[in-house]
Model the fold of this input.
Amino acid sequence: MAECLQAVNLFWSPVLRDISLTLEPGELVALIGPNGAGKSTLLRMLTGYLPPDNGQCVLNGKSLAEWSPQALSRRRAVMRQQSQLGFDWPVEDVVAMGRAPWQQVNSAKIVREVMDLTGCSPLSGRKYNALSGGEQQRVQLARALTQLWVDNAPQGWLFLDEPTSALDLYHQQHLLRLLKQLTTGGQLHVCAVLHDLNLAALWADRLVLLHQGEIVAQGSAAHVLQAQMLSRWYGAEVHIGQHPGSPTPQVFLAP
Ligand SMILES: Nc1ncnc2c1ncn2[C@@H]1O[C@H](COP(=O)(O)OP(=O)(O)O)[C@@H](O)[C@H]1O
Ligand SMILES: [Mg+2]
Done:
């Protein structure tokens, strides 16, 4: 049976109301929605950190609650919205934390490979807590990918909560191109909360729009990013155009 992650009738009072969602293998899914819609709460539930009041999340036919912490850590990794550390570790050690669920074989090699892939190598030797917010985000992505590394590539479910919020243009593009390339291989499956709808339009396979704890729309960028839909759910006045270099819609705020 193909691997998939299913959320079935999730309730978490008063934040989530009857959420059902299936994440398919090799997909890059963007969770979007206004502030307070329940995106981070849903992510915590999909990753097994927060048990629902009702409903369940099922990974490969088994409820997340029945997975052992170690087995689950080998199949899914999470990059949170903010990750301050209480200790003053060098960047390499923070990335190597991703190997904790595994025997430590080849961990130095994997850490080097993933740091190269994520553009973290220039941060080598620096203390994590002294990095800028954007640099810390890159290191957290590297840590999460290191956690999912099997043989020569990441495998499993990667969840990211606003991973581009502190990244500059180059690193936004680098991160999304990397995720796209890794998911296209079919072994990595990604679900990311994204505030930037234009990034979601360019790179996500599917957009899931949350509003007050419910999924109010989902599908392709062309389906979800319609002016009426966005003004209804975000309350913002927008224009929709087309990206000059790609057949995807782009969102412009009305002045
Ligand atoms: N532990 C909690 N108890 C009660 N309300 C919460 C809790 N965590 C989050 N909330 C509320 O749930 C709503 C959704 O939060 P969140 O999932 O963080 O939203 P988003 O990530 O979409 O901005 C917010 O109004 C928030 O204040
Ligand atoms: Mg959030």
Remarks:
- The pocket of adenosine-5'-diphosphate (ligand 1) is lined by residues 15, 33, 35-41 (CB under 6 Å).
- The mean pLDDT is 95.
